[in-house]
Amino acid sequence: MGYLLWIFGFIGAHRFYYGKQISGAIWFFTLGLFFIGWIIDLLLIPGMSREADRRFVPGPVDYDLSWILLTFLGWLGIHRMYMGKWFTGILYMFTAGLLGLGILWDFLTLNEQLSDVNEDY
């Protein structure tokens, strides 16, 4: 999954996926540090994957599917509905992801949100 999101890594998607919010935000605003860091990340993905596997709680709500939904359909709020957050999902749908700010918030916090949802099961 990390490699698929790496294709869109110039917006930091793979870094957010692995729980690296600060560098993900830097990648988001600098196009992957002007594409150089984005290319270097291709070699760093296996280590980031092992670290993320230790940090986040697995469960019935799938991380990979949630990240695919956020990356490609975040403005529709489908990822939020998948997590059981129907109100905010519908709100995203009618406001284009709260004018993009909600999508950015979810890129920053989705792994923690998923861990919380999975702990409740």
TrEMBL record:
The keyword Lipid biosynthesis is assigned to this record = no
Subcellular locations according to the entry? Membrane
Quote a single Gene Ontology cellular component term. Answer: membrane
Q: Which Pfam families match?
A: TM2 (PF05154)
Q: Which UniProt keywords apply?
A: Membrane, Transmembrane, Transmembrane helix
Q: Which domain of life is it from?
A: Bacteria
Segments crossing the lipid bilayer: 25-44, 65-83, 89-108
Q: Does the keyword Transmembrane helix apply?
A: yes
Bilayer topology = Multi-pass membrane protein
Domain (TM2) ranges:
2-42, 65-107
**Name this polypeptide is given:** TM2 domain-containing protein
What organism does this protein naturally occur in? Halioglobus maricola
